[in-house]
TrEMBL record:
The lineage of its organism: Bacteria, Bacillati, Actinomycetota, Actinomycetes, Kitasatosporales. This is 5-methyltetrahydropteroyltriglutamate--homocysteine methyltransferase. The gene is metE. It comes from the Bacteria. Residues 13-323 form the Cobalamin-independent methionine synthase MetE N-terminal domain. Its cofactor is Zn(2+).
Length: 769
């Protein structure tokens, strides 16, 4: 095909669409089913209705080929485990008794069996259920769900393409099942898995699929030669079979790199590539391998995971270049639209000026269709859309929201000294010891205390006007009073105010910072039936007034013990928001850091001697490719130091991260120059303490001795044993005693008992020193 006919055939498609419905109907139906209020039949009907409505929206917008199989009751990786028969032994009885209940048992566990582990889907905030595999795993094909959904779409007269998690990615995302030796590599099961995929593909073909998409985002990560060989083998095998639909192998979230030549050479009919952000290099790489002559290329030029409007002229230029590189070029979003909210038009509170810069799933779909039209019929056919797009982008460039001269001048004036405490840690430590007068093995918590129904009701009452600001303030103060008096009685050394005023650790600050906007129904699936509404970091960031000082000062006024100030760090403020894409992330982080620095300095000025800046997202924002990590860590650590660099040597800066595996960022953690870090450690038996020690981490650390992810109360002896383990790696002068994370999801009874045991453990072990 010539470039011209490749253009004429250009079509619009997407890989997946938000599942929940405009009013989160899916969440309500699934949770209702769990509670026994919704029957299985009603749940299935709701789900089928949502699929029909999604396909209808896509088709009405002009999408030529709709995805099927992207819908899920809980998670599409779990659906893949079901499709290949990888049901863990402990769930088999439940699945055999009732497929739907067994499915939810794998997702959530039951009284008697643990669920599958959950972890983040690449560098997004979506979480999937980790397949558990072992040398004894027997795969069997179960294509029922994929086939049924395909038939539903075909019955509506639509052109449809099933979307599956690819076999290589599936295995690379898996982990050894419990009881299987840790060295077991699931990828060794590839030869066993491929015939099962072949069977599913044959079933889809028989059900009417012309094309099927196999998603291989794991190939956009750094892969070993052996893994790349496995990918080559997988697609030689599947491609070599005759009883199958045409195959479209998709990747996203980063450039394919060394995997691109592998897939370009594979005997499949098409590739879907991401051309946004870090993946933009796919364009050059594709040219370098000679393109995909005679094949289908689906070009992900619309960012599928952020919420800003596309730059049409830039995308059209990319598409024009691609025309010369493939037999057919179609237009798509870079990844499934699962990662963005459904419809920006539903946002009533966002100023029109900002709203015209936003594109959620519905708006992105329209953009994809417009770009496909421009490609097929020439840019003249979409001249009006291009003009409107150019005007919206231009308005963003000159807006006072995105360009605050004061914020910019301040960011430009930052010096190296601003990012450094006035004395090195070794000298600060003594000053802090003298000021704080803490015992060895000081006890503290991570910040939040239980978020009770009363607190949620108080916030709702404030929103609906049932109580005024004063009434709300009173309720929060009462809660702080109780939290402080409990901590004093329990014998904790460094207290917190308990964060009762915070709905969410990012949203709370976003609501108070200029430059952020909140959405009303911008829900995005985090996992299962849990949805989050990330705030939109739209403009230049500044802090009109202090955000936390009055709560911390109030708590401090109630006690002689130090009360720790509590803030969310700049990296996490970016990671859990939709961040502006019109300037480098590092520039945005610097603005947020300066706003937070004011808060840190105000806390210090009001007498706060210990300030914690949480960065639980530091590691999850790590770029997928190792080559991009140094640049990220440079701005990430700089923004943390800028936040905390303005305080006196005797003010103690804490940070907190909630994960147990941080081996690849230990140097970055050191570079934060915090005085104390608390980390998750209870489940991994203080592994982090050993890793910190191995690195030669010179500062104070509190590896968690209480697993807050479970309602279980750890005994004092258990916590003491963990402390003794910790002491083998970290000397007593630098070891803190704390839980793994905040207590907001816990109830009061277990919180009380656990913290009392934690203090008892610290006392016991102090006595042994
Ligand atoms: N300070 C926060 C809390 O205790 C930290 C939460 C987190 O690490 N995710 O809730
Ligand atoms: Zn945490």
């Amino acid at each position: 095909m010539t470039a011209k006919s490749a253009a004429a055939a250009a079509r619009a498609t997407v890989y997946g669409y938000p599942r929940q419905g405009q009013h989160r109907e899916l969440k309500k139906a699934v949770e209702g089913y769990w509670k026994g209020r919704v029957t299985a039949a009603a749940l299935r009907e709701t789900a089928a209705g949502l699929r029909r409505s999604n396909w209808g929206q896509l088709a009405d917008a002009g999408v030529h080929e709709v995805p099927t199989g992207d819908f899920s009751y809980y998670d599409h990786v779990l659906d893949t485990s079901v499709m290949v028969g990888a049901v863990p032994a402990r769930h088999r009885a439940a699945v055999a008794a009732d497929a739907l209940d067994g499915y939810f048992a794998m997702a959530r566990g039951t009284q008697d069996v643990a669920p599958l582990e959950m972890t983040k889907w690449f560098d997004t905030n979506y979480h999937y259920l980790v397949p558990e595999l072992g040398p004894d795993t027997v795969f069997t094909a179960d294509s029922a769900q994929q086939v049924a959904q395909l038939k539903e779409a075909l019955a509506l007269g639509l052109s449809a393409r099933p979307v599956l998690v690819g076999p290589v990615t599936y295995l690379l995302l898996a982990k050894p099942a419990p009881g299987v030796a840790a060295g077991f590599e699931p990828l060794t099961l590839l030869d066993r898995l491929l015939p099962v995929y072949a069977e599913v593909l044959a079933d889809l073909r028989a059900a009417g699929a012309e094309w099927t998409q196999l998603d291989e985002p794991a190939l956009a990560e750094d892969r070993t030669p052996a893994e790349l060989n496995a990918a080559a083998r997988a697609y030689r095998d599947l491609g070599g079979r005759t009883d199958r639909p045409k195959l479209l192998v998709a990747s996203y979230f980063d450039r394919l790199g060394e995997a691109l030549p592998v897939l370009a050479k594979a005997p499949v009919e098409g590739l879907a590539l991401d051309f946004t952000d870090a993946a933009a290099a796919n364009l050059e790489d594709l040219a370098a391998v000679g393109g995909l002559p005679g094949k289908r290329l689906v070009a992900g030029v619309v960012n599928g995971r952020n919420i800003w409007i596309n730059d049409f002229e830039k995308s059209l230029a990319t598409l024009a270049t691609l025309l010369g590189l493939a037999g057919q070029v179609d237009v798509a979003a870079s990844c499934s639209l699962l990662h963005v909210p459904l419809d920006a038009a539903a946002e009533r509170d966002i100023e029109p000026e900002i709203l015209r810069w936003l594109a959620f799933a519905r708006q992105k779909t329209a953009e994809i269709v417009t770009l496909a039209q421009g490609l097929a019929r020439g840019t003249g056919a979409i001249a009006e859309e291009i003009a409107a797009n150019r005007a919206a982008l231009a308005s963003r460039t000159v807006s006072a929201i995105t360009r605050d001269p004061a914020v910019r001048a301040r960011a430009a004036a930052v010096t190296d000294a601003d990012g450094h405490r006035s004395l090195p840690y070794a000298e600060r430590a003594g000053a802090q010891r003298a000021r704080l007068g803490l015992p060895l093995l000081p006890t503290t918590t991570i910040g939040s205390f239980p978020q009770t129904d009363e607190l949620r009701a108080a916030r709702a009452d404030l929103r609906t006007g049932r109580i005024g600001a004063d009434g709300y303030e009173e309720r929060i103060r009462a809660e702080i009073g109780e939290v402080v008096s409990f901590q004093e009685k329990a014998g904790l050394d460094v207290l917190v105010h308990g964060e009762p005023e915070r709905n969410d650790m990012v949203q709370y600050f976003a609501e108070q910072l200029t430059g952020y906007v909140a959405t009303r129904s911008g829900w995005v699936q985090s996992y299962g039936t849990r949805y989050v509404r990330p705030p939109v970091l739209a403009g230049d960031i500044s802090r009109p007034e202090p955000m936390t000082v009055r709560w911390t000062s109030y708590a401090q006024s109630l006690t002689d013990r130090p009360v720790k100030g509590m803030l969310t760090g700049p990296v996490t403020m970016l990671a859990w928001s939709f961040v502006r894409d019109d300037q480098p992330l590092g520039d945005t982080a610097r603005q947020v850091a300066l706003a937070l620095r004011d808060e840190v300095n105000d806390l210090e000025a009001s007498g706060t001697s210990v300030i914690q800046v949480d960065e639980p997202a530091l590691r999850e924002t790590l770029p997928l490719r190792a080559a991009d990590r140094a640049a990220y860590l440079a701005w990430a650590t700089e923004s943390f130091r800028l936040t905390t660099g303005g305080v006196r040597p005797d003010t103690q800066i804490h940070t907190h991260m909630c994960y147990a595996e941080f081996g690849d960022i230990v140097q970055a953690i050191d570079d934060l120059d915090a005085d104390v870090i608390s980390l998750e450690a209870a489940r991994s038996h203080m592994q982090v303490a050993r890793e910190l020690a191995a690195h030669g981490y010179p500062r104070e650390a509190g590896p968690g001795v209480y697993d807050i992810h479970s309602p279980r109360v750890p005994s004092a002896e258990e916590a003491a044993e963990l402390l003794r383990t910790g002491l083998r790696a970290i000397p007593a002068e630098r070891l803190w005693v704390n839980p793994d994370c905040g207590l907001k999801t816990r109830g009061w009874p277990e919180t009380r008992a656990s913290l009392e045991n934690l203090v008892a453990a610290a006392r016991t072990v102090r006595g042994e020193l």
